[in-house]
Amino acid sequence: MSERTPMIEMCNVSKHFGSVIALSDISVQVHSGEVMCLLGDNGAGKSTLIKTLSGVHRPTHGEIRLNGEPARFKSPAYALDAGIATVFQDLAMIPLMSITRNFFMGREPTVGWGPLKRIDWKLADRIAKQEMGKIGIDVRDPSQPVGTLSGGERQCVAIARAVYFGAKVLILDEPTSALGVKQASVVLRYIAKARADGLAVIFITHNVHHAYPVADAFTLLKRGGSLGTFRKEDITREEVLNMMAGGAELESLDAELAEFQRSDTERADADTSGVRPPLAAGQ
Ligand SMILES: Nc1ncnc2c1ncn2[C@@H]1O[C@H](COP(=O)(O)OP(=O)(O)OP(=O)(O)O)[C@@H](O)[C@H]1O
Ligand SMILES: [Mg+2]
């Protein structure tokens, strides 16, 4: 057991939206150099959890600690300044803006002073190209629109940006859900790299094949509550899959499908049991 201070921690956090209890008494910890996968059905509270960590929502009860210190963020910008970078699936990029612009998003390097201060595009382009190169993506011209990159590459721009600006915590809400196998593997490889660089990573996915290879631990949410955190060495891929799909639900689905099959067979039997259409009788 490690007694290190977790990089990010939720202590008995609840989040209510009026009468809706989206999170109830959640405690999770993620250490630096570790990937925690957040699992759970639609509506389980995954996005609410990460929005609470990244300053979009304020917890109704409980506390967030960053590197052991209580943290209260007024907005995502404050969370980012404190080192918590969040990559949202849809809001990650502005397609018509250049790769460089998307990479810096208002934090471009400048030259000159006072009224002569302007963005140093040459340097900005060079950094964007170089940082993308570090993760194996060769951007020939970083001034081209980000919309010309593939989905996986776009996710990587968002992640590269977080790492470049010194994030300590990287939060990814379903970054691979809309991607093909090859693109998803680019993103997964980069998650592994962020972990190796010492970031604490929280990763939401519905895909066990994406979750299992990169995760060190799995936390399962159900209707706003936590069913626990499981270390990878204590749980098999099949058990994770069962937790994700909900073992009980799959069993009842099996029964339902068997029922469909039976009624199909009965119908087919009725068709062949003498009540043949007149056409067949005349032959
Ligand atoms: N701003 C809000 N106002 C009211 N209710 C909300 C709000 N945000 C989330 N909820 C509710 O909280 C619950 C958890 O939602 P959340 O988006 O966190 O689920 P999720 O696990 O991310 O689901 P999915 O896998 O579909 O993305 C849902 O019942 C949702 O309707
Ligand atoms: Mg969600």
UniProtKB/TrEMBL annotation:
Domain ABC transporter: 8-248
Transmembrane segments: none
Chain intervals for the UniProt region annotation (Disordered): 261-283
Pfam name, any one: ABC_tran
Domain of life (superkingdom): Bacteria
MF terms (GO), sorted A to Z: ATP binding; ATP hydrolysis activity
CDD domains documented for this protein: ABC_Carb_Monos_I (cd03216)
Keyword Repeat: no
SUPFAM superfamilies in the cross-refs: P-loop containing nucleoside triphosphate hydrolases (SSF52540)
Biased composition (Basic and acidic residues): 261-270
Keyword set, alphabetical order: ATP-binding, Nucleotide-binding
Name assigned to this protein: Sugar ABC transporter ATP-binding protein
Species assigned in the record: Halomonas eurihalina
